[in-house]
Specification:
mainly alpha, 86% helix, single chain, 4 helices
Amino acid sequence: MDFEFLIKTTERLLLICIAIATVCATVIEISTLIIDREVELADLLLLFIYTEVLGMVGVFYRSGSIPITLPLFIAITALSRMIILQGKGSDPQNLLYEAGAILMLAIAVLIIRQRSIYSLVSSKTNDKDTENYGK
């Protein structure tokens, strides 16, 4: 048996397990919302995190790689949810640390996206330069 095949098969099985676990957690959360007849912002953010995880699994299953921005968005959403769950009684210093972490993650996403745009522009410029080479 080929080692690469073993790795690919293991990846696929783990993706299926992650997808199933995420769907189960989503169903449990939605049923809890229905039973309690109360929806809070933290609940919606949790459902959004589940949606992002499923989206990340789908992207990885189709393309074989995960854009680095997807886990960063999940981390931003999770930190936002944590701030909301702590409520007004939490230590203000912790709130500043958590907000700073969200800001750093947002800046990281911005830098990564700008780098991607710059790479696309740079590669198009290089393509034009090589087309004109020798003319």
